[in-house]
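Per your request, structure below.
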């Protein structure tokens, strides 16, 4: 099933296909180790072969729910930070969710491939482009963080192509694809030492065995 952001089932973003919500530590990238409330939205139009949440892909498995109770749950946590993730959250109208969170003083973050135009008010956008469905051009200047998943050495060229499109203040990360990490980690570390504008991102949550 495919949707567009104007579909009546979303009621202007007051209803979204929330797959799960949980309070944990951020596991990757610039904000690694910080507490945050995660809202995972089901449905994905990218479908990375290495995805560790493939159960999120089919939107038919995740009927829409009233988003207001989810906002309240997030606002009650001590961290005061929400990370919206997926699936691919850019599929959906997110202006209502993000504006209501900000009205409650919650810092809004999102993790997206950028495959679709992103709406909403975001304090931090983590852009993680995928070759099989590259980002919409409007996402590059908005990204605070560029996180490139490296499966093989050729992906480093793809990483540089994307880095050339983001703004000068965007933080650049290379992250080994988990199942290939032992094969590519030396390439990544060597590349960063030669190109120190990049940083390494580790999936710390997997080492800590937390969501």
């Amino acid at each position: 099933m495919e949707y567009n952001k104007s579909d009546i089932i979303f009621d202007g973003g007051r209803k979204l296909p929330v797959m799960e919500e949980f309070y944990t530590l951020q596991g990757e990238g610039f904000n690694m180790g910080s507490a945050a409330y995660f809202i995972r939205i089901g449905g994905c139009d990218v479908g990375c072969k290495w995805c560790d949440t493939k159960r999120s892909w089919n939107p038919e498995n995740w009927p829409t729910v009233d988003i207001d109770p989810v906002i309240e749950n997030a606002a009650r946590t001590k961290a005061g930070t929400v990370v919206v993730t997926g699936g691919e959250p850019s599929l959906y109208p997110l202006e209502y969710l993000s504006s209501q969170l900000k009205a409650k003083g919650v810092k809004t973050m999102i993790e997206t491939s950028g495959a679709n135009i992103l709406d909403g008010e975001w304090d931090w956008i983590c852009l993680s482009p995928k070759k099989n469905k590259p980002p919409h051009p409007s996402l590059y200047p908005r990204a605070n963080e560029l996180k490139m998943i490296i499966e093989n050495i050729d992906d480093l060229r793809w990483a540089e192509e994307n880095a050339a499109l983001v703004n000068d203040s965007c933080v650049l990360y290379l992250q080994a694809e988990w199942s290939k990490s032992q094969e590519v980690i030396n390439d990544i570390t060597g590349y960063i030492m030669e190109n120190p504008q990049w940083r390494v991102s580790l999936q710390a949550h997997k080492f800590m065995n937390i969501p």
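The mean pLDDT is 93.

Regards,
D.
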